[in-house]
Amino acid sequence: MDEEYVFHYDNQGELRLDKFLVQKFPQFSRTKLQSFIQDGFVSVNRKTVFKGGFILDYGNEISISIPDIDQNILTPEEIPLDIIFENDDLIVVNKPAGMVVHPAAGHLSGTLVHAALHHSPKMEGIGGQHRPGIVHRLDKDTSGVILIAKNDKTHLLLQEQFKKRKIHKTYYAITDGIPPTPIGKIDAPIGRDSLQRKKMAIVSAQKGKQAVTDYRVIEKFEKNSLIAAYPLTGRTHQIRLHLAFLGCPIVGDTVYGHKRQPLGVKRQMLHAFRLEVCLPGETTSRSFEAPLPDDMKQLISMLEK
Q1: Tell me, which fold does domain 3-66 have in CATH?
Q2: Secondary structure of residue 244 in the 3-state scheme
Q3: SS3 of 185, please?
Q4: Residue 1 confidence (pLDDT) above 50
């Protein structure tokens, strides 16, 4: 079970929420505590707060639930990996739909991290105790290209490229509906949903972070589209939310799209098709691709008929 702590801010001066929590929990890094905040585990005066920069005032009541993480969850597991590329620095994997990237509540085994640790045992501890090697994430039901670092140097290099938006990503999505234009840009800030902590939402610029996605219609069907999406930023659920905002939610996405799925799919039809990245020791980018999975190919064939 999660451990819950309650504190009262009794200082006269103002202080950021994340800095206050660092004082109370020195065993956690500031980044880790910020992740607890972003995931909705912290509230001020019984209202969930999602930003580490929230300013505390005298008399505020702060409560935090520390997620219970089993220390044995990182036992390597012999799970097959579809490896696109591998060298001494990283692994490029074609992640199947249904596989969770790293351990979390409700998913303490069978993740990509468990499989990667079995494949490359020396990776343990790279980039974080519970997410070794993980530089970026894909949703459980999103398939496609994902990078795993084998050493700290590579982990930092890849993180820096993501931060500076030097890594270019292409996703394929099958959507309900057809966009108003064959080529376009969606520029809509994203933040946590104020009512449901696990959901994201389109919010004002003051309440969220800039999020930009370019898109191109590859094929139009009677009521659906095959779309290539190019996220220029890396917000949680960005493509799913932006396409829904455009009026074309992804087929199978019951969170941001239709609750009922007449096409009978088992997951959101979103695939990380291509990723362009500069590898350690190299000066030009390489492109890695994962072919469309069978379920998306079958749906496209059905729509074409």
Answers
A1: 3.10.290
A2: helix
A3: strand
A4: no
